[in-house]
Amino acid sequence: MAFPKTLLIDFAHLTVFLGDRPVLRDLTLQVKRGEHLVILGANGSGKSTLIKTIFRELYPVTDVPGFRFNILGSELWDVADLHKKFGIVSPDLLSRISHEVTARRVTAREFVLSGFFSSIGLWPHHKITATQERRARSIMKFLSINHLADRPHSAMSAGEQRRALIGRALVHDPEVLILDEPTNSLDPGAMREFHAVVRKLIRSGKSLVLVTHHVTDIQPGMERVILMKNGRIMADGPTRKILTSATLSRLFRKKLRLIKSRLGYELVGG
User: Fold this and answer.
1) What is the C-alpha to C-alpha distance for residues 240 and 17, in angstroms, rounded to an integer?
2) Of the candidates 194, 172, 170, 175, which has an alpha carbon nearest to the alpha carbon of residue 183?
3) What fold is seen in the domain 91-174?
4) CB 60 within 8 A of CB 53
5) Over 60: is that where the pLDDT of 2 sits?
6) Percent of the chain with pLDDT over 70
7) Which segment, 92-101, 102-111, 181-190, 247-256, is predicted with the most confidence on average?
8) Which sequence spans correspond to the domains of the chain?
């Protein structure tokens, strides 16, 4: 069967184990080009496992009837090529690279440019072209971090570091940007700035997958929500229908009330 060109992801009957424990259970998911999608669930619901499976850090069981595992029409991907198609921003990634960028005093400019080489910062053998410089400057301006070009990574705030990581992910103009728990460890001010960047990304038309357990991360323009619980998809559909007090109370196993406004969403107990 021909793969629909409109699909970024086409998964069917995915089961993924960690040791002898299934963490994704018979999961079926399709994501279209241009979608702005939220994957919402409590910690341990399987959200990060799904992202790691997309990036070939984990592998599903394949001998399952009806199994399908297509990304952009192919089951086989070189990981480096996959990272050019799917940009990712996550606290885990930032944590892994923080020591090196601090030790080498990597600047924001160098950090963004290093996305072209899948490296952490620049090395002497990296030859930067004028086109790459223009691309990096354009992205940094878009993310409102152009004034940080020469500032070492260690001298930036957590929110600025997060935006620089987005810049690094965007240099290849990936098909989709995945934001995995993007506001973890951010203070309220940095969180507001990050949400503003998310809204700007949505308006730009970039495909966006936001993975979070914070309802407040869901910004206007994110038209589809998937709720995950116990490694399964509990609900999937338009944001306005899926996000209700009743469904979120079931998702988080606690009586909650959803407050909606033109700026977004908030959950309160009771």
Assistant:
1) 33
2) 194
3) Rossmann fold (3.40.50)
4) yes
5) no
6) 98
7) 247-256
8) 91-174
Whole-prediction pTM value? 0.92
Nearest Cα neighbor of 225 from 82, 2, 47, 88 is 47
Q: Are strands 21-32 and 7-18 parallel, antiparallel or unpaired?
A: antiparallel
Strand partners, 209: 37, 178
Beta-bridge partners for 264? 261
* C-alpha to C-alpha distances, 169 to 15, 112, 143, nearest whole angstrom: 28, 8, 12
| pLDDT band, very low/low/confident/very high, at 168 (cuts 50, 70, 90) | very high
Both tokens assigned to 78: 């070189």
* Helix (H/G/I), strand (E/B), else coil: 1: coil
Place of tokens 């192919």: 74
Please check whether residue 109 is in contact with residue 149, taking contact to mean a CB–CB distance below 8 angstroms.
yes
User: What is the H or E stretch that residue 54 is in?
Assistant: helix 47-54
Residue 260 amino acid letter: K
What are the DSSP E strand ranges found in the chain?
7-18, 21-32, 36-40, 68-71, 86-89, 176-180, 207-212, 224-229, 232-238, 256-261, 264-269
